Amino acid sequence: MNPGLLGLIAAIAWGVHDVIGARLSASLGAVKTATAVTVFGLFILSLWVAVTGGFPRAPAAQLWLPLISGVLLALATVWLFAAMTNGSVSLTLPIVMSYPATSLIFGAIAGRPPSSWQIAFAALVLGGVVAVAKTGEEQNGRGGNSKRAIGFALMSHFTFAIGNFVGQYAATIYGSVPATWLSRIGGCAAIMPLLLISTASPGRFPLKRLPFLVLMGGLDVLALSMLNLAGHTSQPELAIVTASAAGVFAIILVRLIFSEHIAPLRWFGIILTFAGVAALSATG
User: Fold this and answer.
1) 279, 2 Cβ separation under 8 angstroms
2) Structural domain of residue 248, as residue ranges?
3) 208: DSSP letter
4) How crowded is residue 208: how many other Cβ atoms within 10 Å of its Cβ?
5) pLDDT tens-digit map of 194-242
């Protein structure tokens, strides 16, 4: 299994997922959108696990690993949609999807220290993120929203990095799909109470939006399954790095479909960020 290829599949799935999510969360709200994606993802995975008989068979002593991963990923999804609700896709996604640079830290903790080149490329990613963040207030013309968008994006960044790292380790114990299924149970357990306390009408979802929410749930679990499958390879971080190309796909789609204006300095930051991510992938 090539972790880079698995990460690329995840990137395409998440890129489409993020474009749809940016539009739906603006009308439904971040928590509602994330809850629907998490629940529908669990439903789709449950059908798959039931048909294939792939229920977890490992001891329950380490069950907390995929459950914690699911909680973190659910929170990261809420904060991703909250970031895109407060700011543009071109502002928030480079910040969120630069988390592979942070993943190098966890790889080092796990006994896989980064090379000097990888550290340099991670610094390149950081420089790109700073450039993107700097354009937030100037381009959007609404400083408060831009600051909230950047704050939510950073929260999503770090929780995605930790959640995916824990999820990949859990996949080495339970297998890719069972670990993803267990993590989705943990995500639902965390996000349902959040929906109940944060939304006045938690059960009301417009019927015309449901097909898009179901599609997002399927794309999300596909991407997570690819990353967890990469947990069986010798360099699982490489899949996480490649998967961050989702931001590139999403930004291009938004530019082509919705004609979102992107200032030159932000383009520079976007290119710098994802060039650093691509370089990190090549060094893997």
Assistant:
1) no
2) 3-282
3) G
4) 7
5) 888 876 556 567 778 899 999 999 999 999 889 888 878 777 777 777 7
